[in-house]
Amino acid sequence: DEMDVETIWQDGSFVDWDDATVHVLTHGLHYGTGVFEGVRCYDTQNGPAIFRWDEHLERLYQSAQPYDMEIPYTREELTTATLELLRREKLESCYIRPVAFYGYGSLGVSPGDNPVDVAIAAWPWGAYLGEEALTKGVEVMISSWRKHASSQIPTNAKTTGLYVNSLLAGEEARRNGYTEAIVLNKEGNVAEGPGENIFMIRDGEIYTPGLSESILDGITRNTVIELARDRGYTVHDRATISRGELNTADELFFTGTAAEVTPIRKVDNVEIGDGSRGPVTEELQQAFFDLIDRETSAHEEWFTYL
Ligand SMILES: Cc1[nH+]cc(COP(=O)(O)O)c(CN[C@@H](CCC(=O)O)C(=O)O)c1O
């Protein structure tokens, strides 16, 4: 295949990339009844290592819980499968996509006794929003599509079906010439990006929406919060950020496994700060990349070496 990866782990065994298929009457395909993770393996100074694998794996099982979805493998089995996949494919810097979903059986909305299928794929994946984005930042728009409330669909469960909301917002932004969207929640306050959490710096203090704002409890978000606090910053990690505050922000940036730490330089064509990556953003971005390159020995427990 085009990504030069030969195998995928599917339901307990390694299969050829082209044979990793499902039936067209798969429950998850019709009803969005799947949960997934996005995880990165980095080729660090100490060798290739998966970043915060334990937290991602834990979130996968937690995401399945609201849907009564029993993942038919233990955490150890999925860990062993993932490590073996990366070793077989000699993937040292890659993106790992575990997914669990209700499979082929009955087609009522109720999953009945449909099987829960599990697959783990990995492939090389560069900068999510483009190489320049990390240094130059991105231009975003406030989407006309709102984030669903967590009381409607649990936004802290990384559910495949949720991503139609992300697609609607992100594609509206790109259709209008922007790189990405900012999605407000139904109260009209800032939630997050379609595939990222969001941070604001104002007068030297750091703000990021809390779970009550209908967001995903991002692992990169939590990493950056810890790095910022380690550096003495005051971080308001349960903030409510109104739409109006965005214009007066000194700095904004996205965080995510795929997005890493991506500065936001304009919102709806209004410059944020001086319209380039802000100094605090740069400091935290550098701290993040030093951490994952193992320039620092801190947080060794966050690294699962191949
Ligand atoms: C809605 C959403 N919010 C926040 C985040 C950041 O969470 P974390 O990765 O734990 O820091 C992600 C990850 N988005 C994943 C999927 C991206 C995709 O296009 O697919 C990712 O970054 O892997 C989201 O999808």
List keywords for this structure.
D-amino Acid Aminotransferase, Chain A, domain 1; 306 residues; alpha+beta; D-amino Acid Aminotransferase, Chain A, domain 2; binds the ligand Cc1[nH+]cc(COP(=O)(O)O)c(CN[C@@H](CCC(=O)O)C(=O)O)c1O; globular; nine-stranded mixed beta sheet
Walk me through the topology:
Blueprint: E1 7-10, E2 13-16, H1 27-31, E3 34-36, E4 39-44, E5 47-51, H2 53-64, H3 75-88, E6 94-102, E7 116-123, H4 133-136, E8 138-142, H5 163-175, E9 180-184, E10 190-192, E11 197-202, E12 205-209, H6 219-230, E13 235-239, H7 243-247, E14 251-256, E15 260-267, E16 270-271, H8 279-292, E17 303-305
Parallel strand pairs: 8-9, 8-15, 12-13
Antiparallel strand pairs: 1-2, 1-7, 3-6, 4-5, 4-6, 5-17, 6-7, 9-10, 11-12, 11-14, 14-15, 15-16
The chain binds ligand PPE.
How is this structure best summarized?
With 306 residues, the chain is of the alpha+beta class.
Task: Describe the 3D structure.
This protein is an alpha+beta fold and 306 residues long. The chain folds into 2 domains: 118 residues, Aminotransferase class 4, branched-chain amino acid transferase, N-terminal domain (D-amino Acid Aminotransferase, Chain A, domain 1), CATH 3.30.470.10; 163 residues, Alpha-Beta Barrel (D-amino Acid Aminotransferase, Chain A, domain 2). The chain is built from 8 helices and 17 strands. The strands form 2 sheets. Strands 8, 9, 10, 11, 12, 13, 14, 15 and 16 form a 9-stranded mixed beta sheet that branches. Strands 1, 2, 3, 4, 5, 6, 7 and 17 form an 8-stranded antiparallel beta sheet that branches. A hairpin with a 2-residue loop joins β4 and β5. The longest helix has 14 residues. The radius of gyration is 19 Å and the shape is globular. It starts with 6 loop residues before the first strand and ends with a strand. The mean pLDDT is 97. The site of the ligand Cc1[nH+]cc(COP(=O)(O)O)c(CN[C@@H](CCC(=O)O)C(=O)O)c1O has 16 residues, from α6 and β14.
